[in-house]
Amino acid sequence: MFQIRTIITKFHHQNQHYFSSHHCNVATELALNILQRHGFTESQGRQALSSIESLLRPDTYDSIARTINSWKRNVLPRNYSDHVVKHEDFKQVFYQQESRLLLVDEEFIENRIYQLKNLDLIRGQNDLWRAFHQSPAGFFLQDWQEFLKKYYYITFKILPWLNPDNNKNDQIHPLIRHPQSIEQSYMQIKTRFTFAQRTGFKVAESKNVNLKTLLLFSEKDFLRIYSPYCTIEEFEALEKLHSTELGIEDDKLFEDLVKLSPKGQQSTKKANNNSFMKKGIEEGMLLSN
């Protein structure tokens, strides 16, 4: 009897694995077919699906088709001269940067764009495309409360320091010029700014200061510009100190600003309980630093 039970149990597990693998393969092939219809090569499609394969179901291909159409409709520039190059850039976002964007639903896309446009950040379709192309995770998958906290800190603390003359001739928001800045952790953003400010660095005496040099350069290059006589070891020691002792009042201020921010647009569609974003939020899959 024990042997029979063991065999049955083993057969059940093998069957379960077989059906699971079978469904996974079917889901992947169906999704791949959709991507190829949208111009992805087989290699590009498989690369895009490799990191999200475990999330695919046999019926996911249909939602992926709607999602790609929604991204095209919402983020591609209205007028662009080289259609082929732009389409390649569009595909690269999914197979080289952030394949999870294939699984968000149309409602989420529209709501996130609505939220971004409500800030003094996205000032046209080209700005939206730049954010999508250069920082898809930071702008479209990051937890919105975390995004706002960083946005407010950069806007109200860093940018006035970088631009003391308050020159607003630039039609593009500095955060759109360097969109990867929003992918840095809040603590890193705050620490680098506080450090640069406290070194006595004179912004007016240098032309090489912007969000890129402040937040995106390596520690070595950052120090070369903002504090050439400080070693990396000294900076790292100060970084640890900053993370525990500095700017607590700033944190409270920007957390309050986040609470006062407008919420997303009201949904006019029936909620989809199986949507990836709902599952993602529940399981903490959205990016949060």
Describe the protein's architecture and organization.
- With 289 residues, this protein is mainly alpha-helical.
- The chain has two domains: 2-103, no CATH class; 145-260, no CATH class.
- It has helices at residues 2-37, 42-50, 60-75, 83-97, 106-117, 125-134, 136-140, 144-162, 174-177, 186-198, 211-216, 219-226, 232-245, 248-260, 276-282.
- It starts with a helix and ends in a 7-residue tail after the last helix.
Number of helices: 15
What composes the largest sheet? none
Count of strand segments: 0
Strand content: under 5%
Low-confidence region ranges: 1-20, 270-274, 280-289
What is the share of helical residues? 55-70%
User: How would you describe the shape?
Assistant: elongated
Q: Which whole number gives the mean pLDDT?
A: 82
Order of helices and strands: HHHHHHHHHHHHHHH
InterPro entries: MTERF_sf
Chain-wise SSE layout:
Blueprint lengths: L1 H36 L4 H9 L9 H16 L7 H15 L8 H12 L7 H10 L1 H5 L3 H19 L11 H4 L8 H13 L12 H6 L2 H8 L5 H14 L2 H13 L15 H7 L7
Helix pairs in contact: 1-2, 1-3, 2-4, 3-5, 8-10, 8-14, 10-13
Summarize this, please?
The chain has about 290 residues and is mainly alpha-helical.
Keywords summarizing the entry:
single chain, 289 residues, 2 domains, 15 helices, 65% helix, 0% strand, disordered N terminus
